[in-house]
Amino acid sequence: MSLxxxxxxxxxxxxxxxxxxxxxxxxxQHQQGKFTARERIDMLLDEGSFEEYDMFVTHRCxxxxxxxxxxxxxxxxxxxxxxxxxxxYVFSQDFTVLGGSLSxxxxxxxxxxxxxxxxxxxxxxxxxxxxxxxxxxxVNSLAGYAEIFYRNIQASGVIPQISAVFGPCAGxxxxxxxxxxxxxxxxQTSYMFVTGPKVTKTxxxxxxxxxxxxxxxxxxxxxxxxxxxxxxxxxxxxxIRKVLEYLPQNNLEEPIITECDDPIExxxxxxxxxxxxxxxxxxxxxxxxxxxxxxxxxxEMQRLYAKNIVTGFAKFGGMPxxxxxxxxxxxxxxxDIDASRKAARFVRLCDAFNIPIVTLxxxxxxxxxxxQEYGGIIIHGAKLLFAYGEATVPKITVTLRKAYGGAHxxxxxxxxxxxxxxxxxxxxIAVMGAKGxxxxxxxxxxxxxxxxxxxxxMHQKLEEEYREKFANPYVAAxxxxxxxxxxxxNTRWRIARALRSLATKKEVGPPKKxxxxxx
Length: 519
What we know:
7-stranded mixed β-sheet; 17 strands; 2-enoyl-CoA Hydratase, Chain A, domain 1; single chain
């Protein structure tokens, strides 16, 4: 065979590999509203940047008739490319090949790009669309999963890992996305669960649909497993690219600062009136966020889950940062189990990748009740406490209205080593609100006043005295727990300048293998 013949053979094999499971299965994939593995990669990466690995790999199983079903690439497309010029490594599971089921060689291909990503210090992106383990390969398939899981663990906090679920992801397959930093699911076409509806019905008797068991709605609203729900795969891929704008290549690099013509000195007079005078009246903290960040752009994470706390990415003067904010518009911004877990996870993500944390505080405390106590609010609240105390990135906290009790400590307080703590003039920082405090401190005195009007007048007077003496930012400022009381309209430039001054921060904790975080 001449060299020209060999080149033609190579071209034919490449064409064959690019067809995956064949035209019929590709058509079926499209009919289900899904793109193929290669189409997803083409949409994700910069045009012409993809370099594929292991296109000619095939499985090694000869049982159950698999010897007659050999597909080049064996059900997963792997390689490297660029997103906005930055190198990333990617694997994309191909459902057209044996349902995207994972074999020994399938896992080997994924592990190879994971190892490469770690060596090069580049983000890893996994596009999941798989029926699970290839049953014909038995324990070799399970071993393949475990090899992937181990690499997810080793890469955690070293390189950004992003998982998009664009089809089925069930059984052991769910644990790889769960070990990554960010999970994106698409509406209607994706689902995740450890055991499916049939097994659930057999074991528990519960009759439930795939969508209600593990669809995108469930995991973005109820379980909190997924961080983003995309309307379709195109939006999901755009979200991957958007998230990467805020993340560095690895834990040894800083996030990329972009040019910004939105002046940091911009003053917004409406912030002076955004918080209602009535301490019980809600407002939307996202209105505050949008007014202080660059171009009013805020990429919110887990928007539908634990809505009493808001987390997400934004920029100040082109510098990426993470924002954590209590949401008075939902459950009065109280901290509960879900909110504590959500915020703790986000704080740790920011800290791992050198992203400064801006905390906006308006919290009445922790949610009381037996449901919370039985669910372990103590442990879950401690997660958030641990995350803030452990974080060594620049930390800026602004108390907008109230910060009561232990919730004040947890939300980026000075004692958890926040670098700069600001408060708006109307902020109340105390063990509890004035009304509750007076009922505890002066309850006996008030109960002796028989006339109801006199009692209410006395209660109100005592409340005002308590606020003046204890529940205002100047008490905390006297002790240095608040670095400055600032005018709300100046919040943007105070944060932006603070971030610039903290850019060279270096903080090293005591030597240890790792902390024992409450889990």
